[in-house]
Amino acid sequence: MPRNGETPQDPRHALIGCLDSGKTGCLVGRAGAEATYRVYVMLGEVLAAQCDRDDAQLLALLRAAGHVEGERYEALCERVASGAQISELLFDLLPEELLLVLLFERFRENLYQFLAGSTVVEFLPMEAVFVENIQVGHDSRELVTELLGLRERVGALGRQPQMALAPGATPAMTELERSLLAYCSPRIRLGKLMATSPWESTRLLEMVRTMLDEGKLVGIVPAAEAMLPPDEDTAEAPLPPPSPVIELVVAPPPSARAPLAASPIADHYAPSPIADEYDLAAFQDYDTVREAGAFLTDTTLLDRVNLDGAEAAPDTTDTLIEMEDADVDALKSAVSLNFSGPKLHEDEIHRKLEVTNDVLATIAAAIEAAEGRGAGAARMQLLVEGTSVPLAPLFKGVDVSVDGRLPVAQMMKNLRKRPVGEHRRLLNRGLSDLIERALSAADEALDVEGFEAMLEQLAGYQQRLGV
Question: Is the pLDDT of residue 277 over 50?
Answer without folding.
Answer: no
